Amino acid sequence: MSDGLKSHKDLDVWKKSMDLATEIYKITKSFPKEEMYGLTSQIRRAVVSISANIAEGAARNSKKEFIQFLYISLGSLAELETELLIAKNIGYLKNDSIFEEIKIIRKMLSGLINSVRRKYDSTRQIKSKS
Question: From which residue to which does the signal peptide run (predicted)?
């Protein structure tokens, strides 16, 4: 990862996604017990995947791989949002504020992807000129 970052734990988007995971676990505690192996499980898996893929990508050896894992995180975020919309439609989710958190994390992930991509592209241009 380098570029002044010591680990994924230095990334604000990772911290924010960890907070989101904690909040989602609290929210899904109130879901019906019959959803434990259905929607609750899917929602929890998706939210954990966001921060986990940021961490895994940051630990990889190249910016290209990091970008790939950031896109996987973005996909997990979209999956989470969809599942939460289903939960809302069914009546399990009462508060809409979680969707604002998702929007913020989406913007942060997109910004990080663009930043890493710019650095990756500039590195490739320098190598191709050599």
Answer: none
> What's the CA gap between 59 and 7, in Å, rounded?
8
- Residue 121 or residue 20, greater confidence: 20
| Per-residue pLDDT at 128 | 61
What are the residues whose beta carbons fall under 8 Å from the beta carbon of 36, sequence distance 6 or more? none
Round the average pLDDT of the chain to a whole number and report it.
92
Q: Using an 8 Å Cβ cutoff, are 30 and 64 in contact?
A: no
Asked if 22 contacts 50 with a C-beta cutoff of 8 angstroms, the reply is: no
The one-letter amino acid code at 101 reads: E
Expressed as residue numbers, the domain containing 89 is 8-129
Residue 35 within a domain:
yes
pLDDT of residue 3: 54
CB 70 within 8 Å of CB 22: no
